[in-house]
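Model the whole thing, not chain by chain.
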Amino acid sequence: MTPSEKPANEASIVHLHWIAFARDIGLLVAGVFFPPVIVIVFSNNLITGDVAIAIGRIMPLLGALWALLVWMTMALVWTKYYLSLWIITDKHVVYVNQINLFIRQVASWDIETVESVSVSAEDPLAATFNYGTVWIKTPEAGETEYIVATPIPDPNNLRDAILSHIPAPAAAPYAAPTTEAASPAPSTSEGTSETQSELIRSISHEMKGHLTRSQVTFASIIAGDFGEVPESLKNIAGMALADTREGVETVMDILNSANLKKGTLMIERQTFDLLGSVRESVAKFRPEAAKKGLDLRFNDKIGSCLIEGDRAKLEHHVLRNLLDNSIHYTPKGSIEVNLTWDLTSATLSIIDTGVGISPADMSHLFTEGGKGSDSSRVNPASTGYGLYVARMVVEGHGGKIWAESDGPGHGSRFYVKLPLHP
Amino acid sequence: MFVVERFFFILIGIALIAAAGLGVAIYYHFSKFSPDESVTTTTISIYGIGVGAIALFTFIIMILRS
């Protein structure tokens, strides 16, 4: 049994800090109790005679009604507070958000996709009562967004609970190849290939464990978790963090390709504006293109191009990969991005003036581990898995991805065709 | 009994029925979603005592005024 087939266990449940309940109740008391108190104080002095007697008779009833409403509201606040929680297992991070009595939101992330976890305490009360905010970074959350858990009691514990479940070196994932080796040796090339894939996947798991821990350490140094550090050290930690993130992304590509082959990568469909996604992705890559002196153009349009699909995966594995590749493989010149759509489908094109693709490379461009002959020279960090994952994600959406080139030195044209939201 | 008082008794009666409904809804949520079973009993007991106390208070006033 491989690690991914194990049932989830070792759950730790983390409730919100009691300050969340106290804060809501405090607001309730301030908002609900002060008005009647003020009315009672003033009415005693200003209202006399029969009116005062009448008010005196209904005041206990008014008080009872008021107390009942406050009591009901307190019960609702308690329900919201107590039923909102975080569950950490060795496979998932689950966030249950009880928005109100009738709306309950449950979100979960594969713990292997967690890139970094950091902790912050925003106000003086936080240190006194030992609560804080936990910031969790996953590829699905985007480049700059985090999943935020707040206010959490003893936030370092939640961080450690998550980190303890990220595959560690020599932990369960590493055991997989040993298990394979103990079984009868595969006699066919298919069996060998499967063993090799499993080995690559296991090593990738191990590498991801190392890299994620390094990433957390560098992020903590920059955030000042270990105290004030000199600016020069912060800069070095910043560079190391950027390098480590790139490493994590590379490993994630390999792991995703393994998951795709096993059919375990989930496509979560939602309706979203592809035009907005392309616009945002191009904006993210502008600084990198400018650094190389490339002219990255997006022929923006008015309107929206609604498609039904997994926004995070399309942005991360398709748009990011294609734009990243076009920048890496274009030493000089320009990159032009276009998005067109009709009644049934949308077509994205990324046209560059880069090194181009030879007919021999074209045949295995979108295959697993398929790299161009120029890859090692132009882009040493290339794993050959990026375009394979992109193809699998696009095909998972019922779309098509292909490339065209007039040969080496004549640039490349990448196209993605996706069906529109019906 | 004043008309206004009668109106308030009716209002509190409606609110008590709503409070009882809310109690059932909260019990359902806790028994289904709470990770700790004992919290369900404690929460509903405390909530029930509060609502019961207010109901009793209203009932005594109603007896005294009628």
